[in-house]
Amino acid sequence: HAIRSAAYAEVLQSVALAASSLPEPRLQTQLQELCTKVQRGSQPQVAELYALRSLFSGPPLGLSKLHASHVRALSRVLFLTPRLPAFVLRHRLRGHVLEIRHLDRALLRLGLGQLAEEELRAACYLRGLNSTHLGLAECRAWLEQWLQLSCKLQVSEVSLLANSMVLLTLNYLRAKE
């Protein structure tokens, strides 16, 4: 998890940098405020992330338009080899995030109450949360937030889901430590 956590700051910095190049001033301000909020240690709400979903479909934050350094950092978050060409990393990243999205929909149908403790913790870990220092209720609450976002997003918004592995996780861990 230390390898994954080391990439969080780089992902957040890449999102903040991309925010400055957005053409829509209102959305640019919203994303910059979200990044500042996360950088200062606050936990974003699912509604805040969902409101910005259109930014993650096209340039500069759509998965196919992300800078190579951003894709490499996201690859480290998902434990994918970051030493491949950017186009290969984008393809692998997209596949892994879509698989998580598919699992999220199945998990929502099954219900979190059906998961054993080990399964619940594994589900959180797969999505970026190291729940070893959290109680089951906290882990379940975080996973419910994640599912709220994941199950609303379209395939074209897969970049938001990948970046949310950092945005929803970073300060959740800090707040609980």
Automatic annotation (TrEMBL):
A Gene Ontology biological process term: intracellular monoatomic cation homeostasis
Membrane-topology annotation of the record: Single-pass membrane protein
A single GO molecular function term of this UniProt record: ribosome binding
One GO term describing the cellular component: mitochondrial inner membrane
Principal location listed in the UniProt entry: mitochondrion
Keyword entries, A-Z: Membrane, Mitochondrion, Mitochondrion inner membrane, Transmembrane, Transmembrane helix
Top-level taxon: Eukaryota
Domain Letm1 RBD: 1-177
Compartment(s) of residence: Mitochondrion inner membrane
Protein name: LTMD1 protein
